[in-house]
Design brief:
The chain is 36% helix and 14% strand. By secondary structure, it is α/β, with parallel strands linked by helices. The protein has 2 domains: 3-226 and 368-408, Rossmann fold (3-Layer(aba) Sandwich); 252-334, formyl-coa transferase, domain 3, CATH 3.30.1540. The radius of gyration is 25 Å and the shape is elongated.
Length: 412
């Protein structure tokens, strides 16, 4: 096994789903791409019974169905859709829609990330399903929101990064706007919707009624702009790109070492003198113009140049050990192979094993959530499309003949 993910386990352990906090919840997953599946993944990882609705197989001679995140057996797809069951269903066929209605009758949650108009055309919007199951919590993610002039635009992560202002503050001052290195809009909106759904489920305990909850890539990422957004809203200051520096907390930057680079963050009034002492220059802490956080903003370039001149004389490991021992926040800059080789990441179990029937033993990214007394495990690999169709239809009470008819007609 790769040393980077060695966890002392040579096979994927089993977890009793009934012991997990969301055991007993039934979730219908109508999502594609990344944002919606991110929301569903939280629920699936922690015990919900998730039924993923996938389109029927493409007819012979036509391009195969493929999600934005790649093919079923690809790493990205496997990481997003674990812990689920799969039912193929043609929602454009009245018979397929009828099957969905039967699923909705006993479901707790339905999550979709279609453009707003699509679910209305299919007749599966919240107002269509509420009369069938008033307790249903219906979660939606779109690119730009359920209202407004952009509601029907297709939305993708990079578009939201641009519109939210994130790209305007990412990159070097003399360079072009830069996207973040991961799908931060998709992931953030998925995380937000999962929280939204759990709040609605909590409310349902009191009222007995479900609710439509929704967010969008744009809303979620504007929210995540946080202090950069309030610099404009409150201070009327338009944030600019500052590279690896922090726009307001000095010194915070990537500094050279003799064998690479390190991150140092020492902007507070307590940590700045500690950094100066660790670097062998305690006098910097009281140097005129360097004493306060506000004054250090004015002398940013000079301060960072002096720090870099010292840090480049020793190795990254030297500074990480020395600075942390001295109470200064300092850390490495890893490649992904180094991330999963780190002893802390190993201890946290962030690479979790799961057995795939075809691909064998895989390691996927674990949930970052922890419940004391509950073991965090990935229970099952992402299913092959339609793997559970017959079983799910049988659980709905469909006869073998009815199931055969639906499959023969291309409904599922």
């Amino acid at each position: 096994m790769n040393d980077a993910i060695e966890s002392g386990m040579d096979q994927a352990p089993q977890t009793d789903q009934a012991l997990l906090p969301l055991s007993g919840l039934t979730v219908i997953d109508l999502t594609l791409a990344r944002a919606g599946p991110t929301a569903v993944r939280h629920l699936a990882d922690w015990g919900a019974e998730v039924i993923r609705i996938e389109p029927p197989l493409a007819p012979p001679g036509t391009p195969a169905n493929e999600d934005v995140v790649g093919k079923e057996r690809g790493s990205d797809y496997q990481n997003l859709h674990r812990n689920k069951r799969s039912l193929r269903l043609n929602l454009k066929d009245p018979a397929g829609r009828a099957v969905l209605m039967d699923l909705v009758r006993s479901a707790d949650v339905l999550i979709e990330n279609m453009r707003p108009g699509v679910k209305h055309r299919l007749g599966i919007a919240y107002e269509d399903l509420k009369p069938i199951n008033p307790r249903l919590v219906y979660g939606s993610i779109s690119g730009f929101g359920q209202q407004g002039p952009y509601r029907e635009r297709p939305g993708l992560d990079q578009i939201a990064q641009g519109m939210s202002g994130l790209m305007s503050v990412t990159g070097w001052p003399d360079g072009p706007p830069l996207r973040a290195g991961t799908a931060v809009a998709d992931l953030t909106s998925g995380n937000m919707l999962a929280l939204n759904v759990m709040m609605a489920l909590y409310e349902r305990q009191r009222t007995g009624q479900g609710r439509w909850v929704h967010t969008s890539l744009l809303e979620s990422l504007v929210f995540m702009m946080d202090f950069q957004a309030t610099r404009w809203l409150v201070d009327k200051e338009v944030p600019q790109r500052v590279g690896n520096e922090h726009p307001t907390a000095i010194p915070t930057d990537v500094f050279p070492s003799s064998d690479g680079h390190i991150c140092v963050c020492a902007a507070s009034s307590r940590m700045w003198p500690r950094l100066c002492a660790t670097l062998g220059h305690p006098e910097w802490a009281t140097q005129p113009g360097w004493e306060t956080r506000d004054s250090r903003k004015i002398h940013r370039k000079e301060i960072h140049a002096h720090i870099g001149a010292v840090t480049r004389t020793q190795t990254s490991d030297h500074w990480i050990t020395t600075m942390n021992a001295g109470g200064v926040t300092c850390g490495p800059i890893y490649g992904m192979d180094e991330v999963f080789a780190d002893e802390q990441v190993k201890q946290l179990g962030l690479a979790q094993p799961v057995q795939h029937p075809t691909l064998g033993l895989l390691h996927l990214v674990a949930s970052p959530l922890n419940f004391d007394g509950v073991e965090r495990r990935i229970r099952s690999a992402s299913p092959e499309g339609g793997r559970d169709s017959a079983a799910i239809l049988g659980e709905l009470g469909y006869s073998d003949d009815k199931i055969h008819e639906l499959q023969t007609n291309g409904v599922c």
